[in-house]
Design brief:
With 313 residues, this protein is α+β, with helices and mostly antiparallel strands. It has one domain (1-313). Helix content is 34%, strand content 13%. The chain has helices at residues 2-18, 35-44, 58-62, 64-67, 104-122, 139-145, 193-197, 215-221, 243-246, 266-269, 273-277, 281-287, 297-307, and strands at 23-28, 73-80, 94-95, 128-131, 150-151, 157-158, 166-173, 203-205, 208-209, 237-239. β5 (150-151) and β6 form a beta hairpin. α1 packs antiparallel against α5 (104-122). The protein is globular, with a radius of gyration of 20 Å. It starts with a helix and ends in a 6-residue tail after the last helix. Pathway: tRNA modification; tRNA-queuosine biosynthesis. TRNA binds at residue 223. Keywords: 4Fe-4S, Cobalamin, Cobalt, Cytoplasm, Iron, Iron-sulfur, Metal-binding, Oxidoreductase, Queuosine biosynthesis, tRNA processing.
Length: 313
């Protein structure tokens, strides 16, 4: 069985690379005992803001065998989205790099379906479920279990060779596989660049982010009016935020992605500050069809743009 497990694991990793994933690691499905107190404290402190769904399925978040019946292995995958392209107008409201192209949920889900189909064709009658940031799965914890990196002080997963501009996803399956060694080293050292750079002080301590203060939360997850306490502190970000990643020294190793679906729309990048100011709902629908930015809806995006205006004296 061990030989088969090793051979199957190698097959899966080779296919994952062929599908464009920058990393594929495998760990044994089971209870994440180290994560339990961290998650409990994070929720107790209210760092999830109004993301009430984070309070649901506590047991399933910590144990995939409760989420996927009969699960034996968690296949962790990472897909690079880094680009050196930028919005042309430096005064335009800013968009996080991950949202320049097509919605990553759709892109990765398609790849995971292809990977699962490959497993079924080459290994046998295997059951599994794909997860892309839309279910109670602790992506970073499983990536660490499979040896991909460590949690930086900004709470992002960091890899020594690739930085942190990548998406995480999982395939949880009932297949016994050969498991990788967990990461056990933290390479942030004494660096505090991310803590120092966060304009809303969302990083309350190393590896702990108060989500209710995070610009990404404010511009995407929060559906209410933006709190006045953050007026003038969002650094012109309209959708998401890259500050704590942009200042991270490990991201000097980030390389440009080669995923066609993530190529930015020229129309998007060339929009000026006045273009964003005057955007109509029709333009919004046309420009962001199939984009993660559609999550904010037109009213949410207009709210964010209005919030960036200076207070009239």
């Amino acid at each position: 069985m061990y030989n088969n497990a090793g051979r199957y694991s190698q097959l899966i990793k080779e296919e994952a690379r062929r599908l464009g994933f920058m990393f594929c690691g495998i760990s044994k499905a089971g209870f994440l005992d180290k994560e339990a107190p961290r998650l409990e404290n994070w929720l107790k402190n209210g760092y999830h803001g109004k993301m009430s769904y984070m309070e649901n399925h506590f047991d399933k978040r910590l144990d995939p065998t409760k989420l996927v019946e009969g699960s034996r292995s968690v296949i962790s995958l990472a897909l690079n989205y880094y680009t050196d392209e930028k919005q042309h107008d430096p005064a335009a409201p800013r968009i996080s790099k991950y949202a320049y192209g097509a919605d990553y949920h759709d892109v990765i889900k398609s790849k995971l379906k292809d990977l699962l189909q490959f497993i079924k064709e080459h290994i046998g009658d295997v059951s599994g479920r794909a997860f892309v940031d839309s279910a109670p799965v602790l992506d970073r914890a499983w990536a660490i279990q499979s040896g991909f990196g460590w949690i930086g002080k900004n709470s992002n997963l960091i890899n020594k060779k690739s930085g942190s501009f990548f998406f995480l996803a999982e395939l949880i399956t009932d297949l016994d596989l050969q498991y990788d060694l967990a990461s056990d080293k933290d390479y942030c050292g004494t660096c505090t660049k991310c803590l120092d750079a966060c304009p809303t002080d969302a990083i309350v301590s190393p590896q702990v982010v108060d989500g209710s203060k995070c610009i990404s939360y404010l511009t995407i997850e929060l559906k209410d009016e933006l709190p006045n306490e953050f007026k003038g502190k969002t650094d012109n970000w309209m959708f998401g935020c890259d500050i704590c990643q942009d200042v991270c020294p490990w991201n000097r190793f980030s390389s440009r992605h080669d995923e066609p679906a993530f190529e930015p729309s020229f129309d998007l990048l060339k929009m000026s500050a006045s273009d964003w100011e005057e955007i109509t709902e029709d333009v919004f629908k046309q420009l962001f069809k199939g984009s993660p930015i559609k999550r904010t809806k037109f009213t949410g995006l207009k709210r964010n743009i209005e919030f960036l205006k200076p207070i009239k004296q």
